[in-house]
Amino acid sequence: MAKTIIVSNRLPISLRHRNGKFEFKPSAGGLATGLGSIYKSGENIWIGWPGNTIEDPEQRAEIILELHELKMAPVFLSKEDVTKFYEGFSNETLWPAFHYFTQYIEYNPDHWESYREVNRKFCDAILKKADPDDTIWVHDYQLLLLPQMLREALPNATIAFFQHIPFPSYEIMRMIPWRQQLLEGVCGADLIGFHTYDDMRHFLSAVGRITGLSSESGYIQAENRIINVDSFPMGIDYGKFVKQAKSKKTQNIVKNFRNQVGDQKLILTIDRLDYSKGIPQRIHAFHDLLKDHKELHGKVSMIMIVVPSRDKVKSYKELREEIDLLVGRINAEYSTLNWVPVHYFYRSFPFEELSAFYSMSDIALVTPLRDGMNLVCKEYVASRGDQGGVLILSEMAGASKELRDAFLVNPNDREGVKTAIHQGLTLDESEQKTRMASMQEVLQRYDIFQWVKVFMDRLEHVKSKQNELTSK
Ligand code: F6P
């Protein structure tokens, strides 16, 4: 029987080396959970990078065995691969380009070469496991060349691709010297998915203008094949957030945190360290709020959680320094002996503590300058069993297309963000409830499990349409 293979740059685990042994912690992330029903069943499997550089053959053999038990298979990356493929082409070329940060784009042919080689490495690892009629679902921008490589090796396979980050307009795409190879690479898939309609339109327009392939109603006509392109906004494991927020454990943490911060209002921000998240802009807006509203001094604090990420990439290092400086400044200017404006944490938190932060914060301030979807805002909404709290959301996040009852802001509009925070802090309870209830309804209905189902159903549909056309 044909099986399904999930492929992503990172495997859904974290790998640690402790006392001479490897420890694997399965990821509790939404995508891993949503795809759990697929890769954990039957002969199915998830293939990807375990996240470290392991050169020793014995250690590699140990990892292969351990991962096998978890229904995963590793693709090992060398130190050079990490520098040139992961930090280099993926995160210094594609990431800034796809998030519209053209000033950070590196055009390095050596990195491009490594990107091709590592995509080939993934392809070879898949071919060791795949049969001709299998379904292979490739995830994200690190593997744009992979669908076409797979198509050449397995012409009858069912291949899908989903992009978790934005897809830029043609004008940005054409800046990348290797644009045509990248687009042809993705077009090896039968189904190509994005979070939003806009991303999908940008992709179709770039394909039409750069590769010459035409499309109609979301179907690209390739030689002997059709390729469906559509938007599939990703949801979260809604029930898990509801349950955790209600749990005794989280409620006790809330009490404990409240004892520490007192009854002041809390504004929560949680992001991976990334320039696309608009963290400095957000601190500036909060600064302006404190400057203009002296009555709020001592009454409101920002809880700012920044999760370390890609810390070897220059633009990320610089961003970290900028944030340190801005937080230092605002706290130096406004702190008193019993009040700190910004509580800044540069680390990750366990799930139950995140749930407590979500449950107790009066505002979640989610203001990326550009974001494929953004799940933090969805997690905040799901965690509000009391239907209290206010979501301030950037219109540049994919989630803003679904969460229309948030306070939508332009993250570059410092004055607008400041005003939204002020409105949020003074919003009456019944209005909070009305907005929360309507957003909860949307997220509950279209959760991560539904997302996986809708995507897989569509893939089956496209494949049968393709088979009909071929048999005519
Ligand atoms: O969602 C975008 C994404 O780049 C994923 O592909 C990735 O797993 C995640 O963010 C975290 O980034 P990284 O793997 O670079 O730590």
Automatic annotation (TrEMBL):
Keyword Glycosyltransferase: yes
Source organism superkingdom: Bacteria
Keywords on record: Glycosyltransferase, Transferase
The EC number(s) this enzyme carries: 2.4.1.15
Keyword set includes Lipid metabolism: no
Subunit relationships: Homotetramer.
Membership in a protein family: In the C-terminal section; belongs to the trehalose phosphatase family.
Pathway membership: Glycan biosynthesis; trehalose biosynthesis
Name of the featured protein: Alpha,alpha-trehalose-phosphate synthase
Catalytic activity: D-glucose 6-phosphate + UDP-alpha-D-glucose = alpha,alpha-trehalose 6-phosphate + UDP + H(+)
EC top class named in words: transferase
Full-protein interval shown: 1 to 472 of 724
